[in-house]
Amino acid sequence: MAAKRSRGAGTTKPDGAGGAGDDATTLAPKPDEKNRTPSLYVQIADRAYYIWLDKGMPNVGAMDFWFQAEAEVLRERREQPLPHQA
Fold first, then answer.
1. Contact, 63 vs 71, CB < 8 A?
2. Model confidence over 30-72: pLDDT tens digits?
3. Contact 41/61 with Cβ under 8 angstroms?
4. pTM higher than 0.70
5. What b-and-e string marks burial along 36-65, b requiring 16 or more CB atoms within 10 Å of the CB?
6. Which of 10, 14, 66, 69 registers the highest number of CB atoms within 10 A of its CB?
7. Structural domain total, the chain
8. Structural domain of 79
């Protein structure tokens, strides 16, 4: 079986070991992560993006969209009961 040299590392791997397919499986979300609430940052970024789209995608006002999204997301989080209280 021939060996492949990896880039830059100077190590060898047997044919069929490593490669792009292996990296993709390590990046897939774990089953329990699919049901988790996105992080606060991700929620705000998503909301800001949709506000920007609704406003016609202007080239100005990015911070205004972020602050509006932040206020909306934080208000929603305050209004939602905690999981152990539901």
1. no
2. 666 666 778 999 999 999 999 999 999 999 999 999 999 999 9
3. no
4. no
5. eeeeeeebbeebbeebbeeeeeeeeeeeeb
6. 69
7. 1
8. 40-85
